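PT: before anyone asks, these are the final sequences, not the draft ones from last week. 214 residues across everything. Please model them as a single complex and drop the result in this thread when it's through.
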Amino acid sequence: MKLILLGAPGAGKGTVAKLLTAIDGSVQISTGDILRGAVKAGTELGKQAETAMNSGALVSDDLIMGIMGERLKEDDCKSGFLLDGFPRTIPQADALKVLLTDMGISLDMVVNLNVPRDVVMDRLTTRRTCNNSSCQEIYNVKSNPPKQEGICDKCGSPVIQRDDETEEAIAKRLETFTEQTAPLVDYYGKEGSLVDIQATSSDVVVQTIQSNLS
Ligand code: AMP
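LR: through. Structure below.
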């Protein structure tokens, strides 16, 4: 499948993407994961992105399109891809349209995960993430803690609270989402490719996506 997953930070895009990956081998492409990996590795890309990321702002459209222009051409995308956290602005959506047209690819659908703000706030403040950039498994101190506190079940690396998951940075990320990303719901709605889901359970989201695909 070839999907865009839209939704606020904490709406469950990453969790849903991981569940969908297991179904048909489509690859999850998370621009946030790619950027965090670059920050951790100390690359030029990471240096350019870090300040914006830590403050809850977006990194530049040019930088993101540079990453995605390359990433979508990789071989593993041939079996399908789940875009998690991209596009996040109208210029990114416009650029993606051109990129996909040039590559002869059409999307199956754009899914919007609708989650109330208080649920998102609670999820983000209690979320923890594996610090290993090639793992980045997600935990939650209340609903899904690692078996051994602070240690990733999958790879044994430390499980941490992200720098952009302080209350202040979360508030800024939600504001950024409302201003710059939420308009994409209308953008894709007008194109007729949008499926809007009340997304309190990731299993229900996955079932709804599957039934819309078949
Ligand atoms: P995420 O893990 O998707 O919430 O992304 C973490 C941070 O990475 C965001 O708060 C942004 O600073 C940056 N980021 C991720 N994806 C994008 C994107 N498509 N456009 C701009 N900035 C992004």
